[in-house]
Specification:
It holds the Pfam family TetR_C_13. The chain has one domain: Tetracycline Repressor, domain 2 (Orthogonal Bundle), CATH 1.10.357.10. Helices cover about 70% and strands about 0% of the residues. It has 12 helices and no strands. Helix 5 packs parallel to helix 10, helix 8 runs antiparallel to helix 10 and helix 10 packs antiparallel against helix 12. It is elongated and about 55 Å long.
């Protein structure tokens, strides 16, 4: 005898679909109709599997960090690779993702972070996006303060400024990608950013 009715859809696939809706429209712009249509489920199934819209957004944000955002940072930790090459690979990877034709343009985090001052975003959703928006900064800050080559290049002296500089560059490229700028037109930004760091 069955222990209960099984959910008749793939939760991970549905969560990925919800992520793409939030990525394209933001929290406020994504309606329940948009979400259920993209996920291929009805409202009762959404509530049963994911909770309310706020809870779904939090889960979709975590999905983005785990499956998309986190993959960009892997080159930064490659052993035996010069720091400049690691940073260039990281920045190019992020930029390519922002311009990818298979996903909404720009950056999920940048788009949603721009909404955090809006009253329409519930507090838990606001806290989640503020939390994840710090991940890239914290990762770069750790790199500049702890990486031996970064110290040799004295990037640790102004580590916070250097981290903020690259995060600002990435938010800017995300905005440009979202407004139609193509990958080939944006890649020179990476080289200018590295020159700005002095490497």
């Amino acid at each position: 005898m069955s222990g209960g009715r099984k959910i008749a859809f793939d939760k991970q696939h549905a969560l990925a679909a919800a992520m793409h809706v939030f990525w394209k429209k933001g929290f406020s712009g994504a309606s329940l109709a948009d979400l259920t249509t993209a996920m291929g489920i009805n409202k009762p199934s959404l509530y049963a599997a994911f909770g309310n819209k706020e809870s779904l957004f939090i889960q979709a944000t975590d999905y983005y960090v785990e499956h998309i955002g986190g993959a960009h940072s892997q080159p930064l930790n490659q052993i035996g690779v010069p720091l400049r090459e690691r940073l260039q690979t990281f920045l190019i990877s992020v930029l390519a993702g922002q311009c990818d034709e298979q996903t909404p343009k720009g950056c999920y985090i940048s788009l949603c972070a721009a909404e955090t001052e809006a009253d329409a975003i519930p507090e838990a959703a606001r806290q989640k996006i503020q939390e994840v928006s710090q991940l890239t900064y914290n990762m770069l800050l750790t790199l500049f303060t702890q990486d031996p080559e970064a110290k040799q290049l004295k990037l640790d002296i102004n580590a916070a400024d250097n981290a903020n500089f690259l995060v600002t560059v990435l938010h800017g490229s995300a905005s440009m990608a979202r407004t139609g700028h193509k990958y080939d037109a944006l890649t020179p930004i990476v080289m200018h950013a590295l020159k700005g760091l002095g490497i």
